[in-house]
Amino acid sequence: MDFSTLCVHGNDCKYDNTGSVSVPIFQSATFSHPGVGLSTGYDYSRLQNPTREHLEKTLAKLENGTDAMAFSSGMAAIAAVMELFRPDSHIIASDDLYGGSIRLFRNISEKNGISFSLVNTTDIAKLESHIRPETKALFIETPTNPMMHVTDIAESARLAKSHDLLLIVDNTFLTPYYQKPLDLGADIVVHSGTKYLGGHNDTLAGFVVVKESELSEKLRFIYKTIGACLSPFDSWLIIRGLKTLAVRMDRQQESAMKISRWLMSHEKVKAVHYVGLPSHPDYEISRKQTTGFGSMISFETDSEETAKQVLSKVSIIQYAESLGGTESLITYPMLQTHADVPREEREAKGINERLLRLSVGLEHPDDLILDLSRAFEEE
Questions:
Q1: What confidence tier does 173 reach under pLDDT thresholds 50, 70, 90?
Q2: Per-residue pLDDT for 144 more than 70?
Q3: Which member of 195, 346, 354, 357 is catalytic?
């Protein structure tokens, strides 16, 4: 079955006999038992709910995994994965990560006894040099947020397996439509479902997808114990969003390519970071391991004043956090997504007062270019 068809129809079972085309929302916290020792297969919605189960089985199919778990947010999903590791474990992670992941690692996971090495995971030799006896996992985000670095997933998987490590991949930016980390050797995939999977800037959600049943059993136990599961109604919203995932991502990518080329020609733009440009240093790796480049663009303006002017003057594009929705959003990483990262560390990665991140939505690209052009104009 084609990916786009699977997005629309998802898991075959609709959990009722009414013929409802839309998956029903089972807005119930608990389920009655037919008798002692008997169950309908559902007991309590923290463990499982029919609406959420439909979503989870759909996403597992989309990622070619054995199981998927839907969480209340992307950070809840990553926090649950961290519970796989005992104190004194060591994890190597991409040094250009979403700021919320760094905040979790440094303020929660390290407090619980897990140590981290943040390295440039695009350099496999450097990645290997940081492996220690207590290293248990590699955590990579590709493309990275916000600098759009690309890590070779297959090479990372080879390295992980040679050292008996788990490979965890944040696949938020490209989704299983453009990138399938499990097929490339990853053990666990995480998503902020708030972004492209939901696609409408209206729902918080997160996912963990696994390749092996042993990991599924461990994570399902963590899942039901912590209880950060996705609600039935929010599960339905993500199911609805998934139906248009392929269509949205193709249209957004087409627009992002046009906008990134326009940005490259603008006199007030000094650098454009978009993996779909042949000039991007990781372009060939992207072509090897993905079927598309996505619609995330970061670009550096000529000054802090220009960056702030753009943020203040855009009108169609909205100055807001998040990404991946139908509306185009522009973000100031140094003040928003990476505000908790120390300035010296942040600027060393290129996340400075001139850097802006653009999530291209479904508006016509000519309107978005005109909006940016007017925002760049001096008063």
A1: very high
A2: yes
A3: 195
